[in-house]
# Entry
Amino acid sequence: MNYAVLSEELSTDPLGRNYATMTDEEVAASLAAEDRTRLRPIQSSELLAWAADGNRLARLETAAADAGLGAVQSVAKAAILMIRRDGTTLDLSLNDRANMLAALVAADVLTQADSDSLVAIGTETLSRAEELGLGTVRIGSVHQARI
# Structure
């Protein structure tokens, strides 16, 4: 247990969970609750399945062939390469990747629903303890961190 990290979490309460008013047991339960989300990299197999649904790959291919789209054509080509390349990942927590997806939506190559479904694939739920790298936080750990 990293007591320094746990102690910092309890003293600064960055998410406003109100740890100061909780018992040690309530703090441990709060930290264990899976109520946080984060984006994880989307695997190539997931990308391929997503692209096959709803005619998405065909729409990207049409955009990739349209020289009149300029920069969007290049983004569509990059998206196709990423979808087709085995062993690749798409990390939408990176600004440039998120901007590429937004550009395809803005150009009506993909819909907002397409984008939302891709983000949903890459979104995972975790506990605050996992987010902080603490593992399982027990009541005794909370007590020790508060001393």
User: Anything to note?
Assistant: The two ends are 15 Å apart (CA to CA). The chain has nine helices and four strands. The beta strands are 36-39, 42-43, 89-90, 123-126.
